[in-house]
Each structure stands twice: as C-alpha cells, then as structure tokens.
Design a protein that fits this description.
CATH topology of chain B: Rossmann fold
Number of domains of chain A: 2
Structural class of chain A: alpha+beta
Number of domains of chain B: 1
Distance between the termini of chain B: 25 Å
Strand content of chain A: 15-25%
Number of helices of chain B: 8
Order of helices and strands of chain A: HHEHEEHEHEHEEEEEHEHEHHHHH
Helix content of chain B: 25-40%
Mean pLDDT of chain B: 89
Helix content of chain A: 55-70%
CATH class of chain B: Alpha Beta
Low-confidence stretches of chain B: none
Oligomer: heterodimer
Number of strands of chain A: 12
Number of strands of chain B: 10
C-alpha cells in the first residue's frame, strides 16, 4: 500500500466520524494553541522589558545600596550607607571616562494650587542627569543648570504624569509648586517615559541634589548612576568604582550592576516564565494526546471486523499498523496546524493590547510535540489493531 | 506427476482448541487432496468442524498439527505476513455475510486485494470495473453495499475474490443469506468460474447446493467422510 493510498484511507476514516474526529482534534488544538500563546506572552514580556531597560542607555552602570547578590533582590543585605560623598569620590575618579549622577530619593506630596498629587516622588540629582540616563528628554523648558545644582536652588523638572495631574497639560514653566512644605519653581517638563515593573516613572519631580538633602534631611543616596563614555571601559570603570567605594564602605554596603547584568537577570526570569508557561500548556497537549489514544482504541474496536477482512484479503501487519497510526498522526498534525494558526493570530491580537511575540521555537516545538503525541498515543492502538488475528477479527460482532 | 496438479494437499491435519478447562478437537487427522480445476463441496452439520477446515484451507487459522501444502508451498510453517501474501495472491474468499466495507463503493471494495498486492490505481480500477461488468453490476459500480440487494452484494464479493486472479475460490455458505433466485445466480457464477479453470471449494450445510459440486466431502465430528 503506498502512502497516497494510506493518506486517503486515513482521511476517509476521519471524515466518516466528523464530530468525533473534530473533538479529538480539539484537544490537540487547545494544547498547541496554549503553548504558542503563552510562550509568546512570555517572550513579548521579555523583549518589552529589555527594550525598556535598554532605553536608559546601554553603557549605564548602577551603584545600589546593600548587597543585592547575583540572584536578585531576595536574600540580599540592606544598607543605607552610600552618601553623596561616595558619589563625589566616584566622580573624581572617573572624571574623564564617565558621567556620574547620584539620586537622593523620597516620596512626597506635590501640590499646585488646589491640586494634590500624593503618590509622587522627588529625585534629588545633579544637572548632568539627562546625559547619564538617556531617556530623560525635555518636552518643555530646561533641566536645572549646574549653577542651580551647586546652589541647591528650589527648582524642579517634572515628569509627564505629574505635569498632567497638576497642570492639565497647560502652562507650567515658572509656576510654583509645593513639594512637601517647600516651594519649588518648575523649570522644565519631561517627555513621557512610561511605567516599568508597574512603577510610574513619570510621576517624579527632579530637584537639585542639595535641595533634596535639605528637603529629606539626609544625604543617603538610593542609587548612583554612571554612564561610561565608551562601552569597552565598563569593566575597568566597575573596578574603579569598587576600589573607590571600598575605601570607606564594605562589600555588603553596595552592589554594582550594569544594564547588561540587569538584562541577563531579567532574561533569566522571563525565560523561566516562558518555560513554565510552555510546560503547563504541554501538559494540556499531553491530555489531548490521551484523547487521541482513547478515540483510536474505540476506532480499532469498532473496526475489528474491517481489520479482519483486510487481513483476509492480504493486508500485512504493517499495512494495518500504518493505517491506524496515520489516522492518529493526522488528527495530531491537523490539530497542530489549526492550533498554530489560531495561536499566531491570537498572539498578534494580544500584541496589540498587551505584549506578545511569536517565537519560531515555540511553533516548531508545539508542532513537533503534536506529531510526537500522535505517534506515541497512536502507536498502542495501531499495534493492537495489527496484531488482531484475521479469524478472530472476522468473527467479531 | 500427480502432485503437480494438486492445489490443496492436507496430511493428518488436526485442530485442537485448547481452552483452560476443556480441550475441543475440531478436526481429526484430515487427509485432503484437491486437484486443480476441481469443484468440491464440504458439507456437515453445524459444529462438525467445517468452518474450522475452511479457515485452515484459507490460511486464516493454523492447524495444531499436520502438513498443509497449498499450490506446492508448505504453508504450515509460514509466518503471519507470508500467510497474508498467500491469501492475497492464491485465494479468493466469498463469505456468507458478504463482508463488504460499508462505507466503500462496489469498485472500492473490489480493488482491496489489488491495493495490498501493490497494483497501480488505474490498472486495478479498470480491472474492478471489468469484473463487476462481467457479473452484471455495471449499474452498481459506485453504489455502496447498503444500496444493493443481497445478490448484488454477493456478486461484488465474488468480483473482489477474483481481483488478483487466484487459482482457488474458497466460499463459505455463499447462498446462506440470499433468496433462492439470487442463490441460484451465485451458484451459476461459481460453476461458470470452475468451467474457466478456477478451483472452487464450497462449504455448505445445504444438500441441494452441495449437489452442484463435482465431489462432496462430508465432515462429521471433525472427521472427513467421502461420499459419492
């Protein structure tokens, strides 16, 4: 029996029980569909976060308080011993190779006239901040100047959502706002940056670092941002930062992270997420496969007499085996193809609303896995069919 | 010289069904020789072992002991797939229940043995159409079994049995499910085939059907008794 005949035969048998074949196929469709969609969401999330982190600048190095360790924030030690002085020391050390901007951070209520913005943050930093964090772009006005930084002037550059909340996107430059109980003059408005990890990066007022020191009554920095002038210098700079900080602090007081190391952490997490989601959906594909095995067993029993007849007429064991195996594989492959098409379509729809990105590996994996499911779960019923003795099968009623 | 013309030669064929509690001897020491071109009827009451004998002759079942030479080949020791090959090429079956595939047309049913013989599509379809036409079924070529009368279905089954041009036609109560007229027509076809040189082995419990054969063998309690 050649393959075209086998193919036609299998198709005919499936067509004869349309509803049953469809329902069995549905099990595979759902499995393949969920693998593709869930992995797409995982991958989409990864590329979204990667893009966001990269937008800060590829040469960015962060000095953070406490020892975060390699595994992320869990299990690290906390410390608030990094101060403005450390930032100054780093700046002196890296004077020709990097730009350095410390951040003194505090949450504060920000008011303009009768409008109040309670969940706002104030970042005390230096005037070179936009040079260090590349996605800090001005919409209106200016970032505060070096002079204002040195004198600790009460001036503020506000983020996009703060601009919207307090000023309804109307004229803001030169207006006076309250940060806590102090009055600041708005000198600039930043372009929208969006949220990352659920933190709104547009509800922030940037003020001169000395003003923040007065405002919050302390000079512990929450981060020092360092932008290397050349990517090749990053390892050297990291080392120099470490040496500088160790003069005054211990290893447990700070962590040095680069955009690259942050990205690899994020990639690890999102990869794990993708695999976990893919694994869960693989289980549903497995359940679909059991459905295939089940229906093939029913089909073999139903067609016992047909099998006997075919054997009496000269069908060899292999002919029968192939016939039933091909039916199982066709269910799986058909389910696989429909699942892939649906999965890709839905992933694109999700991509419009949220994030998702179809990855070739998940498509191949899902398809390969569905064929495998067909073979594995079709094999036992097919073997059973092929082993029927022609006389017993013919007698079967 | 004689052996050359023997299509079936059975020596001491015994079949014992061995269930855990009872041992049933279905066939005892059967010695049977059928010459090429013979038309033989094997009769017997139900339970006499005639179906078992037919299954063994047709290579659907294997004897417990004894030797069976089909057309010069000792088939007692053949493996399953080799038996399938012999069934496919050497034997045409006509069953009482017709045993047609319900979802297939007359032509699709008839081509089945040729599919397993590896004959190409055009050739086998043409042969199926020719055979069905010869048997007066030119109007039924693309009908399914449930749209045909019993007589028509049995003629489709005969066409199928002839598909690979086997030397031996093996038939088990071919008229059992047919009215008298259709039964006669089927018997006439078998006689006609025998005239053209096919060996026919007919198994039946009806005396008047058996009477149409050249030779009648009678089975009683698994033993063969020659009559006439």
């Amino acid at each position: 029996m050649n393959s075209i005949e086998l193919f036609r035969l299998a198709l005919k048998a499936l067509w004869a029980n349309k509803l049953r074949s469809f329902l069995t196929t549905l099990g595979i469709i759902i499995g393949v569909f969920s693998i593709i969609v869930l992995v797409s969401i995982g991958t989409g999330l990864q590329s979204y976060i990667t893009r966001e982190i990269s937008s800060f600048g590829p040469n960015l190095i962060y000095v953070l308080p406490g020892n975060i360790g390699q595994g992320g924030p869990l299990g690290g030690t906390f410390s608030y011993r990094i101060t403005l002085q450390d930032s100054k020391n780093i700046q002196q050390r890296l004077i020709s190779t990097a730009d350095v901007a410390p951040v003194i951070e505090g949450s504060s209520t920000v008011r303009y006239k009768n409008k109040e913005n309670k969940s706002a943050y104030a970042f005390g930093t230096t005037s070179n901040y936009p040079k260090v964090v590349l996605n800090t772009k001005l919409e209106k006005g200016i970032f505060f100047t070096l002079g204002q930084e040195k004198s600790g002037a009460k001036v503020a550059v506000i983020g996009d959502s703060m601009y919207e909340k307090l000023f309804d996107r109307k004229d803001a430059i030169g207006k006076r706002i309250f940060i806590g109980n102090s009055v600041y003059t708005v000198v600039g408005v930043l372009k929208k940056q969006g949220a990352i990890f659920g933190v709104d990066r547009d509800n922030i007022a940037y003020i001169p670092v000395l003003a923040a020191k007065v405002q919050f009554g302390q000079d512990n920095v929450s981060e020092i941002l360092i932008s290397a002038k050349n990517e090749a210098l990053i390892p050297v700079i990291k080392n120099q930062i470490k040496q500088t900080l160790l003069k005054r602090l211990t290893e447990d007081d700070f962590s040095i992270q680069t955009a690259e190391s942050t990205l690899s952490t994020v990639k690890n997490i999102t990869n794990m997420l993708s695999f976990a989601l893919g694994g869960i959906s693989a289980i549903s594909l497995l359940v679909g496969g059991i459905g295939v095995a089940n229906i093939m067993l029913v089909s073999v029993t139903e067609r016992t007499k047909e099998i006997g007849l075919r054997k009496a007429l000269g069908a060899k064991r292999n002919d029968i085996l192939k016939q039933f195996l091909l039916e199982a594989i066709m269910i799986s492959v058909l389910g696989g193809i429909i699942g892939i098409v649906l999965g890709i379509v839905v992933s694109f729809i999700i991509a419009i609303i949220l994030v998702s990105s179809v990855t070739p590996w998940s498509v191949f994996l899902a398809f390969g896995f569905s064929i495998l499911v067909g073979i594995v779960f079709g094999m036992a019923p097919a073997i059973r069919a092929s082993k029927l003795s022609p006389i017993d099968a013919l007698r079967y009623e | 010289m004689k052996t050359k013309d023997e299509i079936i030669k059975m020596v001491n064929i015994t079949k014992i069904y061995d269930s855990t509690e009872v041992e049933t001897v279905a066939l005892r020491d059967i010695d049977l020789v059928v010459q090429k071109g013979d038309f033989i009827a094997i009769t017997g009451r139900s339970g006499s072992g005639k179906s078992t004998l037919m299954h063994i002759i047709g290579l659907l079942d294997s004897p417990t002991s004894g030797k069976y030479i089909l057309n010069g080949t000792d088939v007692s020791k053949l493996k399953e797939d080799e038996l399938a090959y012999q069934r496919n090429k050497k034997i045409g079956f006509v069953f009482q229940q017709f045993n047609l595939l319900p979802r297939a047309t007359a032509v699709e049913n008839v081509v089945l043995p040729a599919i397993y013989a590896g004959v190409n599509t055009n050739e086998r379809t043409q042969r199926a159409i020719d055979l069905l036409t010869q048997l007066g079924l030119q109007e039924q070529l693309y009908k399914r079994p449930n749209k045909m009368s019993g007589g028509q279905q049995q003629r489709v089954a005969i066409a199928r049995a002839l598909m690979n041009d086997p030397e031996l036609i093996l038939t088990d109560e071919p008229t059992g499910n047919l009215d008298t007229k259709s039964g006669e027509s089927v018997m006439n076809i078998l006689k006609e085939l025998n005239k053209k040189g096919k060996t026919v082995v007919l198994i039946t419990h009806e005396k008047d059907i058996a009477a149409m054969a050249q030779k009648i063998l009678h089975l009683e309690d698994g033993r063969l008794i020659k009559k006439q």
